Predict the 3D structure of the following.
Amino acid sequence: MNLSARNQLKGTIKGIKKGDLMAEVVVEVSGQDLVAIITAASVDRLGLKTGDSVAAVIKATEVMIAK
Amino acid sequence: MNLSARNQLKGTIKGIKKGDLMAEVVVEVSGQDLVAIITAASVDRLGLKTGDSVAAVIKATEVMIAK
Amino acid sequence: MNLSARNQLKGTIKGIKKGDLMAEVVVEVSGQDLVAIITAASVDRLGLKTGDSVAAVIKATEVMIAK
Amino acid sequence: MNLSARNQLKGTIKGIKKGDLMAEVVVEVSGQDLVAIITAASVDRLGLKTGDSVAAVIKATEVMIAK
Amino acid sequence: MNLSARNQLKGTIKGIKKGDLMAEVVVEVSGQDLVAIITAASVDRLGLKTGDSVAAVIKATEVMIAK
Amino acid sequence: MNLSARNQLKGTIKGIKKGDLMAEVVVEVSGQDLVAIITAASVDRLGLKTGDSVAAVIKATEVMIAK
């Protein structure tokens, strides 16, 4: 599967915190932390766990620039 | 100003392509490219240009995980 | 690649309209039209064309309900 | 009220799971499931319940394409 | 139609700038400007023009806080 | 820090409700309520509390128009 979302940053899962419906997944990307809020059901479906090699995927229209 | 958005990845602008309303800004973050679609008006207002040190800012709810 | 985004609606591309930076892709999903705005560069990278079988992918946090 | 969001997929609510702040609403759209994460307060305000005829509303800029 | 999106700020259209695919709509909300990027097709479909009374609709998960 | 997000509405925090992972922050903007869903961790990191002067920040691509 190829996805139109152009940002697919490779990294490693550093931690996962599951809430009742949502989960917080911290991915280390070249020494910087990237936090994703996804559903807890997706954490289970993908079998995500600390240490996994993953990509953080972000649609280009969702990225802002600060200077 | 402190912003609630938890993802603020430091990087350098590698290229800017302006369309009629929108603009595509490519930011190099530790060797990986991150593309932002923002308004051309914001490129002008912030005076963005190639080589600028910036942060790519992303709300945590906008990040997906691929494995 | 498995993606955390839970909504992956199967459909067929009905039309593509490219602008200078962005593109509008209309996907027919079981008789209903779904419009996606993605970058023109992604249309080229994925080689999208009318008639292609694709999935429209939507993060669950982006879906609203109207009643 | 007419809304600029172009994607308004008609469907039926198949299930609702309420968390402390957020809620997960599953809408069946022509045989495919579409999951929405909205606030639990909106579930109450709209009086959403299983079996309701609703529309899943999605802004076009939030839709990605996978091929 | 009632919409789950909880933010529906009443205002008046101050200006519209149409690009090839997208359009920029400026809404004045109690003296502050709010900019919306929607498709040019939606501007036409809703017949939006300067002076119109509208609501700017924003899903709660899309709002950040700066302090 | 200057941010590309063009919508930065000034207001006052009227209430905060924290869930397990997420939090709901209500900001009064010129007499209208604006609800933000951010992470509970960001509420703590920014030290947000009722009565604070803040800005509600919204990327222009996230705003819809209803008429």
Summary: The domain at 7-52 of chain C is CATH 2.40.50.100 (OB fold (Dihydrolipoamide Acetyltransferase, E2P)). Chain C has a mean pLDDT of 97. The longest strand of chain C covers residues 7-18. Strands of chain C lie at 7-18, 22-29, 32-39, 53-58, 64-66.
